[in-house]
Amino acid sequence: MATNAGDSNDLNWRGEFRDANREALFRRTMQAHDACQLRHALVIAAGLFLAFSLTDFSLLGSSPAFMVLLGMRATVATTLLLLALWVWRRPSLAQAPLPINLVCLLAVSGLLLTIPFRPEGTLTNLASTVAASMALYLFVPNRLPWMLISNAYLIGGFLIAMVIWSPLPGGVMVNSLMLLGFVNLLCWLTVSRIHRLQRAQFGSLLEERSNNRLLKNEIEKRTQLEQGLRHMARTDELTGITNRRRFFELAEQERRRAHRDGTPLSLCMVDIDYFKAINDVHGHAIGDLALTVVAARCQSALRESDIIGRYGGEEFVIALPLANLITAREVAERLREAVSLRPLEVNGVTLDLTVTVGISRVDDGETSIDPGLLRADRALYAGKEGGRNCVVATPHGPELVLLEGVPATLTPGAVRATASAAAPAAVPAGGPLPDRS
Ligand SMILES: Nc1nc2c(ncn2[C@@H]2O[C@H](COP(=O)(O)OP(=O)(O)OP(=O)(O)O)[C@@H](O)[C@H]2O)c(=O)[nH]1
């Protein structure tokens, strides 16, 4: 979190951040701006330096003194333009004190050189010194100590040059000095204020960026939390598959789609055989593990578009879009085999897991999946009655009928589409027989 970077406590007498890192960051941020400002200042100064050749000429004519001044002006202007070009190529130079101050020194020296050559132009000399002083403060992106040094050199040089080559009456000299002093004070205060304002603005910018970052993090955290909550609200904690509520939402969507498109939708009720015995003999932890394994094995036998949910306890429910009873029977059979294919081995215990599956098809005229689920449950019940570890189908109504086109063994009141007649493998030796009633 950024502090109030523009507070006066954070700034030193130069109007810069006390924190060197923050000052470096500020200067890096300002680099392009400083480079642009310096380039413009150098080009304008070069133009002015050359332009004053005209006044030199009007005062000196084409004398040797004019030629010396012209040479000086050409040298200074060329140096200024070269630095402008260099800064254009390498903007970081705009903040390098050495080249800037060498060029300032040269320009100030050139300006002072005009005094011995044009001693009678007192007013012009004073005015150009004042203008140069202001430019050194306001247009050269220098640090304050360097500004003070170059201005001290300018004023000191002006005084010495005036005393030697163009002595003025005492009162005029004092006036000139006061004027220069006032200009310097004003410019110093202005520059300090600009420095402070720039840094205050930079501090606010940093603070705003930091707040934005915090806000972004908060939004990301909340989005993740929301996603987590949504996932929790839709998922069965133990098995990781869809929970009952979400299953009903998704299955109802599929029922509406099937109704609209005139496509089939089948339902399966899957129940682990003799699950109570697993709990009773091996404990709930292993029972939980068995539930998770069965859920995963069931899911592995399904397509991505199929919907599996935990109906409750050790019962699962599945919606099979685009599947008629024949397809549903094949899927259920695949699922039954996937569960019983290999035993579950845990902590030295070997469990032969099996499931019984009841399947039904949702009728075109039905306005919810409930009647279909009821039929699937009845088929499941029949499968339990008939020996477990099997798939039983019921297309319609209270009676269970033979699937069309599917070879099946008819059991009283039910179609055993596939059944393993073997003794239920999940029962541990001596384990109790289940009672579904
Ligand atoms: N470990 C565990 N057991 C559960 C969970 N939910 C339900 N059960 C148990 O599952 C058992 C279901 O027993 P029953 O309904 O008698 O069914 P069953 O023993 O599988 O017998 P059949 O279904 O007739 O083969 C009960 O003992 C429940 O306590 C659960 O989340 N974890």
Automatic annotation (TrEMBL):
Keywords, in A-Z order: Membrane, Transmembrane, Transmembrane helix
Transmembrane residue ranges: 38-60, 66-88, 100-117, 123-140, 147-166, 172-191
Cofactor: Mg(2+)
Signal peptide stretch: none
Catalytic activity: 2 GTP = 3',3'-c-di-GMP + 2 diphosphate
Enzyme Commission code: 2.7.7.65
Glycoprotein recorded as keyword: no
Record domain GGDEF: where: 263-396
Molecular function (Gene Ontology), one example: diguanylate cyclase activity
Pfam families according to UniProt: GGDEF (PF00990)
NCBIfam families recorded: GGDEF
Official protein name in the record: diguanylate cyclase
Organism: Halomonas fontilapidosi
